[in-house]
Design brief:
There is one protein chain. The chain folds into three domains: 58 residues; 75 residues, Outer membrane lipoprotein wza fold like (Roll), CATH 3.10.560; 62 residues, AF1531-like domain (DNA polymerase, domain 1), CATH 1.10.150. It is 45% helix and 13% strand. It has six helices and six strands. A four-stranded mixed β-sheet has the order 2-1-3-4, with helices on one face. It has a two-stranded parallel sheet with strand order 5-6. The longest helix is centred in the first third of the chain and has 48 residues. This is Competence protein ComEA. InterPro entries: Competence_ComEA_HhH, Endo/Exo/Phosphatase_dom_1, Hlx-hairpin-Hlx_DNA-bd_motif, RuvA_2-like, Soluble_ligand-bd. It holds the Pfam family HHH_3.
């Protein structure tokens, strides 16, 4: 027993060094396990971030609608996808005092290139559908068949529009129709509620 004690006294620095080393190795072993899971957590967080970016991008898609009739600022407006007619009316500065909102479904979801026409109280819709919104015909993409929906544009005028478009490119404004034979200012005024660009 005395020999062991003497041996310990002579080599206590070495023994203490070994003990400290064992404690340090044990600490590293215990703390190493959680770090193995960290890359997985980071990956999951990265996936969540990328998913939320995609959701944001889809939410930011825009559509174009034409608002006409008894509104304060008629015109073409860019709105976010999944908005409703009421949003378009607000973008157009609200409705005039003589607007007949009973003829409009303000809760209807908007579609790209849609036209919203707000009639005044003296106007009556000929459609009989009880709805004052309709999709305008896009003069840059319409076919002869599409133009059949437009009152005042027969097959010959439709062909002239398409021929002009193919030769000169897309129309930038409805007033560009004046460049097409057979379309004057009065004709365009009558058609503006049925057409869009």
């Amino acid at each position: 027993m005395g020999k062991i004690y003497q041996l310990f006294q002579k080599n206590k620095v070495i023994v203490l060094g070994i003990l400290v080393g064992l404690v340090f190795v044990g600490y590293l072993v215990i703390n190493k396990r959680p770090t193995n899971n960290e890359p997985v957590k980071t990956q999951v967080l990265a996936d969540k971030k990328s998913a939320s970016k995609e959701e944001i991008k889809s939410a930011e898609k825009t559509i174009v609608v034409d608002v006409q009739g008894a509104v304060n600022k008629p015109g073409v407006y860019h709105l976010k996808e999944r908005t409703i007619v009421l949003d378009a009316l607000q973008m157009a500065g609200g409705t005039k005092n003589d607007a007949d909102l009973k003829q409009i479904n303000q809760a209807k979801r908007l579609k790209d290139q849609m036209q919203i026409y707000v009639p005044n109280k003296t106007e009556k819709r000929s459609t009989g559908s009880g709805s004052a919104e309709k999709e305008a015909v896009n003069i840059n993409t319409a076919t002869v068949d599409d133009f059949k929906k437009v009152t005042g544009v027969g097959p010959k005028k439709a062909e002239k529009i398409i021929a002009f478009r193919e030769q000169h490119g897309d129309f930038k404004d409805l007033n560009d129709l004046k460049k097409v034979s057979g379309f004057g200012e009065k004709t365009i005024e009558k058609l503006k509620d049925q057409l869009t660009v």
